[in-house]
Design brief:
Blueprint (H helix, E strand, L loop, with lengths): L7 H26 L3 H32 L5 H31 L15 H8 L3 H101 L30
Helix pairs in contact: 1-2, 1-3, 2-3
Length: 261
């Protein structure tokens, strides 16, 4: 039904509201492409102003409907009321969209039409809604809050589980590092002990070599003396060696000589 056939004022207001809704739709589409936070914030403020104007037009529409209510039939009044509820629903959609963009910009949470007049726009919009719609909206907000709390609890539980797993992993790694340090200490002690043992063996080998060298020199000296005494038994510079002394004149003893020597 054409609203101009009911009231010219209703038709004009409906046209203004339709224009505002189109502007809001185009504005949010453009806002999606804006990357600069400052530009987004300014454009979001402009869209908030348009939503405030749209709220005022809906309020005027509701006032005009009440003025002509007595002149219209029940079907027409029902149609006008449904039209008003449809406008409110569409406006609430843009309000929710605006809150999402505001949260994405990490700005503080604002009311539905937060402006210079404080909470008055929300109160005016609430006055245009029926009690059943207000209760339904309240229940919806409570459900959303409960869901947000459940998600927060889930995140907290997951964080605690991750923290416990991380703590256990760190403890296991710490124990492993302690075992590695103990093994390194044992290896270091073994290396020091082996080094000391090698030095001791080296000293013993050097001592044995010295002793063997001295003994070898002694044996060489004895052999040399024996050879010289055999070759020149009358040499008085070399003392007699038992068994190798020349025979005493008039003595019946015979010198034992071993050719093998």
């Amino acid at each position: 039904m054409d609203l101009f056939s009911i009231s010219d004022e209703l038709g004009n207001i409906d046209g203004k509201i339709a224009d505002e809704f189109r502007a809001l739709k185009n504005g949010f589409q453009k806002l999606e492409k804006v990357k600069d936070p400052n530009r987004r914030s300014r454009q979001l403020e402009e869209l908030t102003g348009k939503m405030r104007d749209c709220k005022r037009f809906i309020k005027e529409f509701d006032t005009e409907v009440k003025d002509v209510e007595s002149k219209n039939s029940t079907d027409v009044n029902r149609m006008l009321n449904e039209k008003k509820q449809s406008m409110i629903k569409e406006l609430n959609y843009f309000v929710t969209l605006k809150k999402q963009y505001a949260n994405s910009l990490e700005s503080k949470r604002v009311d539905m039409f937060d402006g210079p007049t404080g909470g008055e726009p929300e109160e005016n919009l609430a006055s245009t809604m029926s009690n059943q719609q207000l209760v339904g909206r309240g229940n919806t907000m409570m459900d959303e809050t409960d869901q947000a709390i459940d998600r927060s609890k889930k995140v907290v539980n997951e964080t605690m589980n991750v923290g416990a797993e991380t703590s256990a992993a760190l403890k296991a790694q710490t124990d492993q590092m302690n075992r590695v340090v103990n093994e390194l200490d044992s290896i270091h002690f073994s290396i020091k002990k082996a080094s000391a043992l090698v030095k001791e063996i080296g000293r013993q080998v050097a001592t044995d070599k010295c002793i063997m060298g001295v003994l070898f020199l002694i044996v060489l000296g004895v052999v040399a003396v024996v050879i010289v005494k055999i070759v020149n038994p009358n040499n008085k510079d070399i003392p007699d060696i038992p068994g190798l002394a020349p025979p005493v004149p008039g003595s019946n003893r015979k010198l034992l000589w071993f050719p093998s020597l």
